[in-house]
Every structure is written in C-alpha cells, then in structure tokens.
Q: What sequence folds into this?
C-alpha cells in the first residue's frame, strides 16, 4: 500500500497491513547515546535510563510536529479508537524511514527507541481520556527501519498499521 500525504512524501507499508497513522517529520532524531543516560533511582537506588536534555528537546519538538496535520495524519480515527477500546492488545507494525544528509554518519537503529517514545507519547495525548494506558510501545511486533540520504531535506517518516500475520 502506498500512501501520500500533503508534503508529497510516499510511505510504504505491507499491502496486508491496515495503516492508520502516517507522518513526515522534518528533523533528525538523536542516536541512542545522545538520547539516554544512566541515572540512579532515588527511591530504590537501582540504575535506570533517563532521557537526556537532547532527547527531551527532540520529544518536545516531535510532539508539536505530530500534532500538526501538515506533518502527521491520523488516517483512520475510528480504527485508532477501536484499538484504544479493544479488550485485548492489538499488535502493531511500524515502518520507519530516516533521511540523513549522508548515508554514512549515522547508524540505522540508533534512533528507533526515541522515535517510538515520541510517537506513543503522541498517541497517549490524542487517545480518549481514560484510554491513554492502552497505548504502549510494546504493541509493536513488527518493525522495518530504512536509511536514505537526502542532503536538502533531512527527516524521518513513519507509518503505523495493525499488524497482520
């Protein structure tokens, strides 16, 4: 299935998947080392990972861009709500395409987690009140990440679908 949004980008999803959300975000996500840092939990004393200032800035910017219909579109609000209300978790697939200025300066997988964090934070914001908890990134059971070069328009694009197996 090929889907085009207003910016003219083309996002590809498996023909058997039911895509309900697409986005083209004109910023480059930070890598894993820029996004997370170890910290000690003050209550338990155990170590955990926390968002760095770079990650917090990225998440803030992505939140604003995902809320803008120029960059993101909830293709099927009724499907989104049905997933929210479902008594069983609905498995999801994610296609992520990252357009860096060059192919060779970034790892392909270093930004996947921060992009997923930003996306599911957005889903929690647009979910009906009381259904926010149903949107957890552990719903993703399939993920494809692709890397491209676009010196003039660095960005990341994603599509989210109900996973069919």
A:
């Amino acid at each position: 299935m090929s889907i085009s949004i207003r910016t003219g980008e083309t996002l590809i999803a498996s023909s058997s998947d039911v895509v309900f959300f697409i986005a083209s975000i004109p910023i480059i996500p930070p890598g894993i080392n820029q996004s997370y840092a170890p910290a000690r939990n003050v209550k338990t004393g155990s170590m955990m990972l926390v968002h760095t200032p770079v990650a917090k800035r990225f998440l803030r910017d992505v939140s604003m861009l995902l809320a803008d219909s120029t960059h993101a579109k909830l293709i099927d609000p009724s499907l989104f709500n049905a997933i929210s209300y479902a008594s069983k978790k609905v498995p999801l697939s994610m296609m992520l395409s990252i357009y860096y200025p060059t192919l060779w300066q970034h790892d392909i997988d270093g930004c996947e987690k921060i992009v997923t964090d930003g996306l599911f934070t957005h889903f929690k914001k647009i979910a009906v009140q009381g259904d926010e908890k149903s949107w957890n990134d552990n719903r993703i059971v399939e993920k494809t990440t692709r890397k491209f070069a676009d010196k003039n328009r660095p960005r990341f694009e994603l599509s989210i679908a109900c996973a069919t197996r």
Notes: The first strand starts at residue 2 and ends at 4. The domain at 2-29+55-162 is CATH 3.30.1330.70 (60s Ribosomal Protein L30; Chain: A;).
